[in-house]
Structures are given as C-alpha cells and as structure tokens.
C-alpha cells in the first residue's frame, strides 16, 4: 500500500482523464448497476452524485471538522487517542512510506457513516505527499473532500491521474474498490492505488467511510465469478487475518496481489 513516492513529485508523470461519474438518481437500478460494474472493472474508482446525502449535512461535517482541527493540540487530544477511536497525528515515515496526516477516527454503527477527517500541515514546501500511495484494504471506501485538489489515482505504473474536485459535483462521493472486494470479485474489480497531495496554501480535508467485513467472516471469490476459464485466484481468508498482515507492513504494499492470498 502506499508508499511514498521515491521520485520528486514535479518529475512524475501525470495525465488528465475523464473518470466515471454515476448519477444514482436516474435510470433504473440495473442500468446503474452496469455502470458501477464497468467503472469497478476499468478503474476501481468512480464518483457518485445525487446519492441522497443532503448537501447541508456534508457542509456541516466539513465545517465542524475544520473547527476541530483548528483547535490547539491539547484540546484535540481531549477526544482521546486514535486507538481505537479518537485524535491522531502522524508522519507516515516508517520503512520509506511518506505522508503526513492529522485525523479523527469516529466509531459508527450499521446505520450511520463513520467519518475520518484529516487536515494536512502547512509546510512551506509547495506540494508534498499528504497521504502516500496505497490501496484501501477494506471492501470499499466512500470519500468526500473539500474543494482543494490533491487526490490522485494510479491506473498504470508510474502514471498519476488527478481526481478533480469538479465544481458541479462538490457533493459527490468518490468510491474506491478495496482489496477485499477485489478478492470477492475474483480479480474482476481492481483495488485502485491512490494518494493525496497537500499544498501549503489551503488545507485539504477529506472524510471517508471504510466499509469492512465483520472480523471473522470468511472471504472467498463469489461462486458466480469462478468458472473453469477463470479459476479462483484467491484463497479464503478472514478480514482479521488480512487486516493484521496489511497493517503490519508498509502502507504502499498491495497485499492482495501477494502470494499468501493467492
Ligand atoms: O485524503 C484523501 O483524500 C485520501 C485519503 C485516503 O486515501 C485514505 O484515508 O485511505
Ligand atoms: Fe485510501
């Protein structure tokens, strides 16, 4: 998962591309499902609009998050340490990973979306890695951010594609296929590698919900996606097993592609 970028950012290859935006309010369900499947196969990423979460709820969450992160550290620490839920701040510098985030982890229940908010420090350097290259380990991630650009996805080795905060879709949610969904889809969907760059002018704030399976559920490729011509590519595993492995190594390693899971 994520690593850091060994090469300085300005020399990296970057290309604009039109990424799928799926309107959840139009057409019938099966049309929408087809678009989701196509985007998950081609990109492991798409945005959704008209998703039913009211704009003022998103705006309010963003305002409250900014207020929280603007407080002195001693105040922020009053919510408790980030393990399992609370405030944390981290330089993701171990083992070559690069990144710097401040975050607030909140607990959730099955009816509400958990939030994870981060602000990035204002370092004098123009652009730097806020959250290094990685894939998300869970099933899928729903993410919304303020209007500060910086999110990028990698569809081919060494090539970064910016995910622009389109002014017409400010309340869009970005959806990322995660490692577990890639295994469940027997490799038909891809767990997309991504990162977030920060700049020193305006803080980037994002709020994410990570949808993960229950700790001890057995994860295997869905039988409908396994056949003689496309045999099972992944062995059965539990989220507890996968999570332990994924969090014990580098952010940038894509565990789902490594041999123990195949
Ligand atoms: O800050 C962002 O927009 C991306 C964060 C991210 O990729 C993550 O938390 O997994
Ligand atoms: Fe991520």
TrEMBL record:
Fe2OG dioxygenase domain sequence ranges: 107-213
- InterPro entries, A to Z: DIOX_N, IPNS-like_FE2OG_OXY, IPNS-like_sf, Iron_ascorbate_oxido_reductase, Oxoglu/Fe-dep_dioxygenase_dom
Pfam families named in the record: 2OG-FeII_Oxy, DIOX_N
| Keyword Hydrolase set for record | no
GO MF term (any one): metal ion binding
Q: Which UniProt keywords apply?
A: Dioxygenase, Iron, Metal-binding, Oxidoreductase
**Family classification:** Belongs to the iron/ascorbate-dependent oxidoreductase family.
Protein name as it appears in the record: Gibberellin 2-beta-dioxygenase
